[in-house]
Amino acid sequence: MPRTAIDLAPPMPIYEYLSESPDEPGSSCRICSKGFELFRPIDREALEKCPMCKNSVRKVISKVSSPRTVAKPFSTSDAKKAGFTVLEKRDTGVYEKI
Question: Is the whole model's pTM more than 0.70, yes or no?
Fold first, then answer.
């Protein structure tokens, strides 16, 4: 199957930008005051100006998407093998080492 231009292009991360002063009238447009996203190559420097209004913007650190994993709880023997100290509650505020 022939490869398309999309297949050949290197993956580009999505960068988020927000106005330096989004609440100040005249220092941001309706786009950068709410924030915007751009696909940009990793080797390019971060934007300093909004492409629409040319006012100052800053790069925003966004959430990272990672696959959710479900870990089963350690059994007492697994926890001991891993080097953990296992305590068992005996009474209010009283724990006993197993």
Answer: no
In a domain, 34, yes or no: yes
Tens digit of each residue's pLDDT (9 = 90 or more) over 54-78: 999 999 876 666 666 667 777 888 8
pLDDT digits (tens, 9 = 90+) for 7-41: 555 667 788 999 988 888 788 888 888 989 888 88
Closest CA to 48 of 40, 37, 39, 57: 57
Say how far residue 91 (Cα) sits from the centre of its chain.
42
Say if residue 34 is exposed, middle or buried (CB neighbours under 10 Å; 0-12, 13-18, 19+): exposed
Number of domains in the chain: 1
What domain range includes position 39? Answer: 12-60
CA distance 74 to 29: 53
| Angular region, 93: left φ>0, alpha ψ -120 to 50, beta rest | left
In a domain, 48, yes or no: yes
